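Our platform keeps sequence and structure together, in a single record for each protein. This encoding replaces a full spatial description with a residue-level series of whole-number codes. We quote a single record here, exactly as it is kept in our systems:
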Amino acid sequence: MFRKPIKIKSNTPVKSSERKHVKDKIHKQYPTLTEEDLNNLLPKKEGLNCVKIVTASNEIIQVYTVLKRPICFELHDKIFPTICLLWQFPNIIHNFTTHKEVMNFIYSGADLMLPGVLTPPAQTSLPKYGCAIQKDSIVAINLSTNKASIAVGFATMSSVEMEASGKKGKCVSVIHTYGDKLFTLEGFDSPIPQMGPPEWLTFQKDDDFPPLGARPKRKLSQNLSSPGDTPQSEGANNSPADDKEKKEESIDNDKNMLETNEITKEMTIEDVDELLYNCFFTAIKYSKTLTLPILTSNFYKLQMLANCPPGKTLDIKKSSFKKLKPFLDKMCKENIIVVKEMKKGVESIVEVNKSHPKFEGFYVSPEERPRKNQEDCSSSGTPSVIESYVVTNAVLPILNFSRPKWQKGDTILGSDVRKYIREYIMLRNCQHENSKLVQPDEALSSICKNTNPIAWEEVYEKVCDSMKNCFKVQTNQKEILNKGKVSPITISVANRSGNKKVTLVDNLELFGVKILEFAKECQHGVAASTSVSIPPGKKTEQLLVQGNQVLFVYNLLVDKYQIPKRYIRGLENAPKRKK
């Protein structure tokens, strides 16, 4: 979250009356902190500042600093500790321990995966020490060589789910790391303190760190043993079933170690090139979400990277091409794809040559092909907009010619209309000697108002024009059917009395957005008043937000509500950035 540049909106000292409120919030979030700990954290003689920052995603976050040292920040109604706070009080939240080699991946923006988490050899449950972790609880990450935290985030699974997953999948979603823009806020800088390895993890030598993927030589600290425990000889009092279970667990641990080793294994240039070609052809041939035209940058981020095989990481900088454009240029020269410059400096893939020998020869087994998870789509709340037509009496003879099933008032997709028209023309022998033209028969003549040969595209347009437009908006909650063409969400800026600017947002409800909830999010997000009304001459409610908040509204619609960008208008009204 804080890897990209942030902007300081305000920096104000916290009043003494508000200082106690901040102190109470921290104590409520972390009850293990004593009164003495809190006094050391917030010394009375030192000033406490509240710094409001704006992140790259346009989120406004409050950060509390002491002597320009960030100690905590407020996000999603929770108080998150910074790295600095955890160095002072390392045990206030749970720390997941990982290998030193994983540190660079986390600094680069990666999340922590379960195969990279270290646990005591005698412990079969996650997380270590047997403490229960709830989903979305605040956690930290430290290293096997140093228990000082290097990252803060929230758990993506509960401890029960971690065990059920077979120690696979994402463990921690990282928000804040050592050295990011939050850590260096107001010029603060400090090296990571050397606090020694975690108590439960000890090595034969201080510098004897096993390579990632190897089994470390370690032993449990005596502090972890309960008073009544006595050492037993290996295999004593163990039934054959227990021995079998331990062997299976050992095999699972070995597999997880090997998986982690494969992820971080260095790949040669030839290996990266082969992976690049594999991801490219998988995306254009098997992707379930690819729609053309698509921006080349979006194609790489949303298609190629998304279709990278598990256990591998695609980094085009390590390939022989170094950048995406030279690779796509080669694909164009080989006539596999067609790339066009839609605007100056903006290129899109507009066509894929599915008859190319390389396209036809590329094969991925069905179980390894990308699949669209219907469960995830329905639960995510992402709306899908389906443009359709309402069947009229005029087109019934064409649609029902080969397979009678349509009635007046039914809705039909545009792609199905084209299919039925083509079937009708071919079965009725209406194709002209010139393959690009159609000779209308009686039914087509009444629709196209023409008896002379006309182009195929004109036939499609005339048939669609003779039906009524409509569109469906499907969400996980309901399906909304709207008449007419798709009315995009429009964001405009107007002047009110005193030359004050306001942002107006129309057509939110057409896309299933609850306007009152959206207004509340805008009110909290930009700290501005909002109102909802129905303007004269309009049928839908309009949202008004004080100030020019076009960029915030646009990002909220795209990022949280997942409204497709092609259905949003008005981004050009956002305030221009000062050079």
User: Anything to note?
Assistant: The CA atoms of residues 155 and 172 lie 5 Å apart. The chain has four domains: 1-220+248-265, 269-368, 387-474, 487-573. The two ends are 24 Å apart (CA to CA).
